[in-house]
Write a structure and sequence with these properties.
Number of strands: 18
Bound molecules: ligand BES, manganese (II) ion
Radius of gyration: 24 Å
Largest sheet: 6 strands, mixed
CATH topology of the largest domain: Aminopeptidase
Shape: globular
Strand content: 15-25%
CATH superfamily of the largest domain: Zn peptidases
Strand order of the largest sheet: 1-2-6-3-7-17
Length: 462
């Protein structure tokens, strides 16, 4: 039986299992869900075992466990290390979902649930591709699975695991499905991910909330000050004003930019999908460039004062904001964090106190189109889609990818199958059935092409 025939015979089973996994609310950011996060880890472990790995185990960390499993068919063959995450973002605000986020439904050929695409749906494709290859006796590489539960909160404990377990994790390529393709008619392979610096700012004015009539106009209002400081972080051309911020940004040549502009992109449709009249960003760059090769700065949350019903005349004591920058190579996350801290400390007036707390960060990653992994992924897409995939730079971050390159000295390949319109991190997240099944098929082809191209299993051909 061919892998494709097996896949076609087992579509219902593959879908039902994913729906079971999506019912487990494995929200890594919220302690109240700790047991559920563990349940998701055990679910993956059990499914890997029933799919035929030699062994699978949970590695305990200071936080959520890491699922590790392997199937070694021949130590002299090439090894694929699969990375993915079973944790999901919080589903808030629940009231904006058309269906409860952890009661998955299939509607119009799409699976709706938190994690449907990011990353349970995409990660589970690998488990089912593995089952397919085992059942049809077509697996041509050794496989190692490393599925973590803390990607959405910065992967700090995975970092320690990777640094410690280099031998165990040795592989010829790291295969990851946690990114997007351009659209379902235009496959693409992600060759760039942005980095990240995330921090929280606390501005304190008077030592208590005050009557805004008795004191207003005479005492600094921390919300007024915070919003001004934030507004001044960007100029009218959409450039970030922090001194030194662009020093390490790699500029692309005109030729590279012309090449990038070949990727299909429909600006009108983009605006329509988001209900916006105009896009906005750094002057002189296209939308694709603004997301792929340029850094940016966004406020992710801001609060303080009175936000309850009606009104309250208060001059608040404190104001808070969560701020993140997305970075491109060669920007260094720690340096950028220091620059932002300095910006607030230097620019805030004496009438308030400033406290800046760094959260997680991440280094940007760039992947070569000349690697064996890229070639194998490209051929796999050509086989399943009938089209050669286009290399793209994506705006999101997977901080652990740069660490894989640095510590494991192994090339990652970002073979994702999501769409920008899948609403990841938003209400009504979904994943197309087409993408789920086509992804499983393409992953199975990847192994075959990888083993053919890589030197180790020369001559081994299906
Ligand atoms: N899968 C995403 C990253 C992504 C999405 C890359 C779409 C490319 C296209 C990942 O789960 C994610 O959300 N990462 C976080 C990083 C973080 C919380 C440290 C992000 O990008 O905000
Ligand atoms: Mn993800
Ligand atoms: Mn995510």
């Amino acid at each position: 039986m061919t892998p494709l025939a097996y896949l076609n015979d087992h579509k219902d089973k593959f879908l039902d299992e994913l729906l079971d996994l999506l019912r487990i609310p494995s929200v890594s950011a919220d302690k109240n869900f700790n047991n559920e996060v563990r349940n998701a880890a055990n679910f993956i472990k059990d499914k890997l075992i029933s799919s035929g790995v030699d062994h699978a185990e949970l590695f305990e960390t200071k936080g959520h466990p890491i699922v590790y499993a392997e199937k070694i068919i021949d130590p002299s063959f090439s090894t694929v290390l699969v990375y993915g995450h079973y944790d999901v973002q919080p589903a808030d605000p629940y009231e904006l979902w058309d269906h409860p986020p952890f009661k998955p439904i299939v509607k119009n050929d799409r699976i709706y649930a938190r994690g449907a695409c990011d990353d349970k749906g995409q990660m589970y494709m690998h488990v089912k591709a593995f089952e397919t290859m085992m059942a049809t006796d077509t697996l041509t590489c050794n496989v190692k699975f490393m599925i973590e539960g803390e990607e959405e909160v910065g992967s700090k404990n995975l970092e320690a695991f990777v640094k410690k377990e280099k031998q165990k994790l040795s592989a010829d390529v790291i295969l990851i499905s946690d990114t997007s393709i351009i659209n379902n008619d235009t496959p693409s392979i992600t060759v760039g991910l942005r980095g990240l610096s995330y921090l929280e700012v606390e501005i304190t004015g008077p030592n208590k909330d005050l009557h805004s009539g008795v004191y207003g106009g005479a005492v600094a209002n921390p919300i007024n000050i915070l919003t001004k400081l934030i507004a001044e972080m960007q100029d009218e051309n959409g450039r970030i004003t922090i001194p030194g911020f662009y020093d390490d940004v790699i500029e692309y040549s005109d030729r590279e930019r012309v090449e990038m502009a070949q990727a299909p992109f429909d600006l009108n449709r983009y605006k329509k999908e988001l209900d916006i009249e105009e896009v906005k960003g750094e002057k002189g760059f296209s939308t694709i460039e603004r997301v792929g090769i340029r850094p940016c700065l966004d406020v992710n949350g801001i609060w303080g004062g009175y936000t309850g019903p009606g009104s309250k005349t208060v001059l608040p004591s404190k104001a808070f904001a969560k701020i993140s920058t997305r970075l491109v190579s060669n920007q260094n996350s720690d340096n950028i964090t220091q620059m932002i801290i300095k910006y607030f400390e230097k620019k805030a007036p004496k009438s308030v106190k400033v406290k800046v707390t760094p959260h997680h960060g991440g280094i940007p990653a760039v992947i070569s189109t000349y690697s064996t992994g890229y070639k194998a992924a490209s051929r796999a897409f050509e086989q399943s889609w009938g089209k050669k995939p286009i290399p793209t730079m994506e705006g999101g971050s997977i901080p652990i990818v740069a660490l894989f390159i640095q510590e494991l000295k192994t090339e990652p390949i970002l073979m994702g199958f999501g769409l920008d319109s899948d609403n990841i991190h938003s209400p009504n997240e979904s994943y197309g059935l087409f993408n789920y099944f086509k992804g499983i098929e393409t992953i199975a082809y990847f192994y075959n092409h990888f083993s053919q191209i890589s030197k180790k299993n020369k001559g081994y051909n299906l």
